[in-house]
């Protein structure tokens, strides 16, 4: 039996390690206390403000605070969605590298990512100044599903290219 491109040992190792790296990154960000978390998102919020609000420094302190709080909120929610999009894609690629064409792979990847989001939000309840939000679980779950879909499209695309280059190499 010949191995198709995604079932090679080095790909299994790489997708597994990258999936674990994303999990560790999420856990690390969630382990920050409220002050550190605000500082992390604040860096990105200030960068967005500098682009979207060039007159920011001329606003009143109250207006600046409102703009900053609004932008930081959207930065934080975008970060949730994006990191879980990456996570969902990595889970899907990892599971495919191990199990191949399993019928419920998309659902399994989405379920794993959503379950991790639930545990992550519970973890945040134990961190000083942080809170677990069910709305974040919904946002994370949507990110996971988007990542799963993108990964599935990527797998389909790469398999087609592989089959063109290796017409005699069939999954067994």
**Unreliable stretches covering 5 or more consecutive residues:** none
| Overall residue-averaged pLDDT value | 92
Helix content: over 70%
DSSP E strands, number: 0
What sort of overall outline do the alpha carbons produce when their principal axes are compared? elongated
| Separate helix tally | 5
Compressed to H and E, one letter per element, the order equals HHHHH
- The oligomeric state is single chain
Structural class: mainly alpha
Largest sheet: none
Query: If you compute it from the alpha carbons, what radius of gyration comes out, rounded to the nearest whole angstrom?
Result: 20 Å
- The portion of residues forming beta strands comes to under 5%
Termini, distance in Å? 6 Å
Could you explain how this protein is built, in words?
Helix content is 77%, strand content 0%. By secondary structure, it is mostly helical. α1 runs parallel beside α4 (105-124), α3 (61-99) crosses α5 and α4 (105-124) packs antiparallel against α5 (134-165). The protein is built from 5 helices and no strands. The longest helix has 39 residues, at 61-99. It has helices spanning 9-31, 34-52, 61-99, 105-124, 134-165. The mean pLDDT is 92.
Explain the layout of strands and helices.
Layout: H1 9-31, H2 34-52, H3 61-99, H4 105-124, H5 134-165
Helix pairs in contact: 1-3, 1-4, 2-3, 3-4, 3-5, 4-5
Notable traits:
mainly alpha, 172 residues, 5 helices, elongated
What's the gist of this structure?
The chain has helices spanning 9-31, 34-52, 61-99, 105-124, 134-165.
